[in-house]
Amino acid sequence: MTKQYTMETKLDWSAETYYYEGEVRVTYEPVAAPTTPTVSCDCSAEPDTIIFTDKDVPVTAMLTASLSGKGTKTVKNWTVYGRADDGSQYTTSTVGYGLDKIEQKFSFTIPRAKLNGVDSYTETWVMRARVNFTDGTTAEQSIECTTTVTKPGAATPDPGGTPTPPPAPPVTADVEFIPNTIITGDQSTLDNNSDGYTSMSWTFSNNLQEVIPDDSQYRYPNLKFDKPGFYQAKIMVTNGSETRWDTASLQVLDPKPVAVVTGPAKVIQGRDFSNIFHLYNSYTPLSERGVTVDFTKNQTRYKKVEDSEYTNGWPSKGPTTLGQYSVEGKVFDSQGRESDWGTHIFEVVPDQPPIVSIMTPEQTYRFNESMIYIDAASVDGDVLASMKIEERYDHDNDGNYEEEPWTTIYEGPFKDTYPVTYTTVGKRQYRASVAEDYGLTAISEIAATNVLNYSPFVNFDVSGLTQQPDQGDDSAPEDLAYSGESIMRSWKLIQPYTTNANKSIGWKTNNGALQTKNAKMADFFIKYPNMGLGANSRSKYEVAADLTKLPVWGLPKNAVAVPYIYAGHRLYSCEGAEMVERSAKNGTELSRFSLSAVSGLTYLGADKNENFYYGAGSYGATNYEVKNINNHGELIGSYTIPISGEMSYIMYFEVSDDGQNLYMAYRARTGASQEYWNVHAVKYSVQDKSVKWDVKTQDIRYSPTFLQNYKGVIDSDGDLYLTWATQTTYDGYEVYAMAVNGDTGVMGYGSRGASNSDISYMTATTEYTRGRTDKWKTLYFNVSGYVQYYSGGSNMNTTMYGYQWNRTTGALSKIFYDNINEPTQYGLEYWETCKTWCDTMSWEDTYGVGTPIIYPDGTVYATTRYQGAEYYFDQYLQQIKPKASGNLIANTKAFLMPSGNIAYPTNGAFADYTNAIYKPYASIVVNGRGPIDPYNNTKGSINYYNEVTDTSYTWTSSFLKDPTLNTSILPDGSFYGFSAPGTASGIQYVFPFVPASGSGDYPKVIDANTVEVVDATWAGLWYDPATKLKNDRLSFNVAVNDAANDKPIGAAIHIQDGKNMYAAEWSKDKLTLFKVAAGTKTALQSVDYPRSPFVTYPFELEASNGTLRVYINHAKLIEISDTTYRQGSLGILSLGQQQAKFSDVKVKNYGDYYVEETHQSVLVGEEIKYETIFDDIEKDPELAEEWSYLHDPNYFANSLGESAFDGKTFEVKLPSLDKPGLYHIALKAKDSPGMDEYEAWSEPVTKELYVHRRPIARPDVQFTGIVYPEGETLDYATFDTSYDPDIPDYLADRKFRTRWADETAWTAGKRELYTRPGVELIIQEQVQDGFGVWSYWVETRVYKEALPAANQHRPQMIIAYPGGTLASPTLLGGEPVLRWTYSDADRDPQEKFYLKVSYVDNGAAIMEGTFPGNDTSFILDEGIKQGRKVKVQGRVYSKGYWSDDSNIVYFILNTPPVTHLLSFNGAKASEPIYTNNNRPLLKVSVTDVDNQPVSRVDYEVFYNAGSELAVDTNSAVSATSYTTPALREGLHNWRARASDSFAWGGYSENGYFFVDTVPPNDTNEQLEIKPTSVKVTFNPFSDAAPSSGHASRAFYMQKVNEDGSTTNIDLNNNGTAEYSISLSNATTSYTVGGLLAGVKYRLMVVDWDVAGNMGQYEYIYFSTNRPPTADFDWSPKPVYEGDTVVFTTAASDPDNNDLAITYKLTSPTGVTRTFAYSFKTPYPLTGPSLRMTETGEWTMLLSVSDGMETVQTEKKVKVLALGLTGYVKHTEQWDEKRKEFNKKQSGKEDSPRGYNVFWAGEKFLLSALTTNTGTATKADRVEVAMKSYSASLTSSNSSRSGWQGELWEKTFNDFKKGPLIFEFTAYYNNGIVKRDTVTVQIEGNVYDIVGVHRVK
Fold this sequence. Notes:
PKD/Chitinase_dom; PKD/Chitinase domain-containing protein; mainly beta; single chain; Ig-like_fold; Immunoglobulin-like; 13 domains; 2% helix; PKD_dom_sf
């Protein structure tokens, strides 16, 4: 951690402390002098005054200048300037090298001409001294002094008599050194030009005294100075009365250059220096003599101050050791002079941490931006690189921050402020840490902030959410009650869960209650051909007109249907060991029961009471056992029937309709060998359990015999008819017919040979006597046969047979032939089948022969099977009509319907062998329902057909027929077909055909209390479609007064229609709530709840806000939510339950309302709406509220006492209030800022609320007895007792509406007449109280069966004035008085009248109202609009009834002209019309619908800013255009109106326009020019206020040709030359490229304002830039190491721009140096000069910039190496001796002594080669050293590349054997020294060769 310690000092020293390596250190530094150097000047002029002597006046001016506050700066020299005030006599010189104070003398002259024409003249001398520092900076000061010249006599003469003596000549002191600056060894003259004195004296500086020991001389010429310094000589001259002084200064300069080391004064240890050390501020005093500093020879060194040893060079970065260091440098001038060492002290200091402090506001509030201030600095000037701010938050507000963690809220670059916005209250602490770029950090002290909480603000408004009863057509009263009579008169009865209407005949009223009648179920168990009218094929019922097929359905596999339909469209099927009850319409299972009671028995048949019979008898048994079970599987009867003979099987079994007798036929075998067979017919009494008769045929031989197609029928009188066919091996094919008297058992039968045949049922006429005692019937049946011949071929035939049967005797005979026992027959059809179908037909195709029909008149009808013919016969089977093509009865059964039309069913199947499927089908064909078509449908048949596809198939389709299975026509007109069981896939199919309406024409009246019905839907659902409620409860009492008590009753709610509702059904033991959707019931909830007969139960069904509830006995049994239906009707229902009584039917309407906000009022107990505003500036949540209530219970009438809430305070607002009265409610609230201690309460706010009760409507409408021809009047007012319980004597409004019971729509208002006797008139009323709250609708009803005779006539109204028609209305100047005539035939007075005044064009009412009294006029004052046709109509009232509408009259009011603005008609102030014309032409259009001429136009113009009326023409102008006077700048609006001489029309709309005549300001374009582009920047739009705004901005630019003309150029790079282009208004810069360099252009940017003013502008002319050129050269060439290379710059710019020159020189080793210059034209050749000592290829890059473009040139400078090669040679003689010696030794010249082997004592011949550069660089000398011997070689040529010399001393003889080294050194004139060594070998001595003779 860094900490700063403060210290005080009373000296001019500064002290600093810092922490360093574990200790605190203090450093002291002398306080630096002021950092701003100041020059102080003084001057004097000699003379300062002088008398003019008619000649030029010489003046000497002395300038003295001194320097202060230079700090560490070093003075280089001074530059002084002097001149006259007018700029003449300008003189400058450079003096004072290194001095802080100088004196300089200037010589001036005042020309005599200055005194021409004046008595005196004063000249001002201006002098200036500028000090130049070595770092390139300067400081200067100017000063002035004067000289005044006066002409003689200009002074006023002395008035005395004594003459004035002539003035003494002036004394002048004038001395100077000439020259005043010299170099040591030079001479200077101390000159003296003083004058007018009588004595003088010199004062010399000490150093000058050494040069001039004699101070008595007048002047001192040619003084020689050998010491540098500043010399001064001062002279004083006087003439006794006047004394003058003058000083001469001489600076003697040391010619040595001055080394000035410049660099940083301080550096942090180990850091880079802030700037480099250099000697470039060094200078030479001889610079004005052309001497320069040669920086290439600089010498540098440095050391720590206290150290003694230096280090060469300068440090490149701060040393690591703290302390002061001396950096020293030495320079040389161009003449080789060497400077002293220049010294610069810098200090290495430790890196100190920064100082940081943090400040935060003591208190602040959330969501306001607060600022954290960070004051940090680096003691040693480092960059503050990063900062971290930390916060810790006292979360629990306990004041203990130490438990809280520090959290960083900012970490990043340093900044001195950091904004924070608080979202929570509480106290926080902060600290900041700052890091320098070199890593040291510091942490601040801790600052604290307390974030406070603002108090919240609350306000509220209070209203009631008043439940207003809906007044629409779907609205209803709160309470409704219905009598049974009213329900039957006004409700709708439908078949439940369908849209089919039901007949109301199943219901009746009973003392105000509504109940169902007794119901007798129609018999669906209908046999054939006795369908209730006898065995005659006549049906009691018609096929339903709306018969429709339902989907075919199939029984489970192998199940067999009981082929009868029971009431309610049910059937039974035997399915294994169970019998199943199903819906015949869709197969839905209804119940099932076990057949265990009849297990093992064979099914025989069923009866109409839904009992089922099973039998069992074994072969040879004497009895046949029959058992009877009911539809619950319970055994209810067992019967033993004796059998005659050996029974084979039962052919026929049937139960009589009354269930008392069983009919049975069976085949028996007889004879000893069972060789015979017979057929028995038996009638068995169930009651007596005895056989009534048992008859049989004669025994017929068995060979064997197959019985087939047997059919039986019981006639209405109990007679039995049987038919069957047989096939025997002996007798072939036969058909049999048997008839048995049901009472006596007499029987007759007959047979007839036939082909393989099908035989129909037998039909019979009614009994007749033929005039005898015997009773007779005629029997008919048809036979269809198929014959296949052995010889091939086959035929088909159909024959009709008839028997005459004697019921008394049983005999069968031919018709009308008693004694012939064969039947009468008639062949109906015959054909050879192979001619038609050939082998495709077989005997199975005969199945389905039609049964004859007997008409009521005895006519017998038959039809063929295949040939499409029909026959009519009399009872004797004589044809009574010709054979006709007609309808085929394609199956066994045929029905003659009550309409006389015939219907017949079919069934069968079509097999598809290929696809292995078959299609069972069934249909019923009904004659007379379709158009006659060309296919023999003479009756116009319709075939109701359906089929189904099965996935299996059987042998042939015909085999699948069983014609007996189809039902007869059922009571409701329905019909069912069945497929044959057990075939194909094993599925028996059911084909339902039912009425679309459901029940046909049922129910039917039996008597007043009984109806016949066909199903359970006969009673149905009563509901009121006109009343649709949303939240309601239906309640009634219900009792089932039927002991069976077996059908559901209940109610429905939210009925949409017959198929969509909620329905509650209550059966005998279960209550179920259903949702019915699209006719399908879905149980929502079900409970077991038994219902007892003859007990009355309260029943309630409720729907409220999506919840459904059912109550019985006031106990809630069902509750469930469902929102499928949210509104609808309600009703009561009975699903077939007879004797169900519904009484006291009521409806409670909960929610048919809309919510209306009633300000400051609410109903008792209803919801209060509080619109609360909790406003917390910091968005704190609301923590708590306090609500206070004060109650005034006596504010309203009928007080209910004091509220339970009076005077109490609650934490929550009360949703409702319990008592009426005036309440004062107060609220205050507290916020939750997050800490308890900071919570705050708002100020309380109080509001009033009126709590009142709903008004009550009590309508009572009665007949008046006044009867008009149209109806009887009703009295609404007399008996009405509606009231408001709070303000009893006031109701604000009433509403009535009415509807007839058979209507669903309400008619608003009162219906004055009851006009429909026998129909209820339903009347509802609402009343409104003073708070605007409506009562509930309350309903009353009026009803009369018949109206009394008319006793009153209607009055009449005829409007007399105005009397205009539609085509020609009355034209009026003002609203009229309407007048009419009243008349009444009964002379009854007018009681009130009604008028309606409306516009014709749209029917809008102007006035409509009813007014009391007998007035026959009415003043209109309704503000009727002029020019529109008005329609007037009315009626009058008298004696309870209104007249018819009166005649209609029309009028129209005169219309003043209408004025519209045509010009300057801006629609609003923000969208005016702009103009730059301050006298706009205003235009209007005037229209007059009455076509009257315009007489005057009034123009009004307003200045918008102050609504000042600027123009008002009043009535002075009649034209529709007008030019205004000059208007002010800015926004105006105007309007106009016109007069048609009758009235002024209204003012036109306002038109807005803006006058702006001042052009926008210039855009002040600024250019950035480049060689081929220009960028223009310009100001945003500017315009003097008021301004119309910025409309557009355009850019203009063209090329300017030499002749001044212009040429368009491409301004937007689209390839097209433009004169100008548009710019977006927001554009403030634009660049045009593609310009030509050095070409002249012009441009401008211009704005237009919206008013059309073009802005101020001026073209700017400019030329594009041409790039500079860059080149350079150098010398010498070539360059050798050590050469000082001078680079010369050849840079130029065609535009004469200032150039920035930069040289970048890179040495072969990568060291780079940069040189920079600034050139002005004319451009110099200056370039860098430096000594290149490194050999190799240097790179010089020259960059030249004119400020816009930079060009570069790079060249390679190769620095060659200088060389030296030394040679040591023998003299010629010694070399010869060496060779001789070698030859002697080896025979070779160079061995064994090589050339480098010398004898001691030899002379050494020395030679050297140095580099021949070809330049000025040459070797100056070459020296050779060998041991302590040396020699200088002599150049042998002018290039000084060859050198010669020798070396010998007598001591050489003493050299010992061994190597001898010669060192050659070459000194080049560029300072390079090269060395080379040559080693020779000393072997032997010269004495060895020559003896005592020495040879050198």
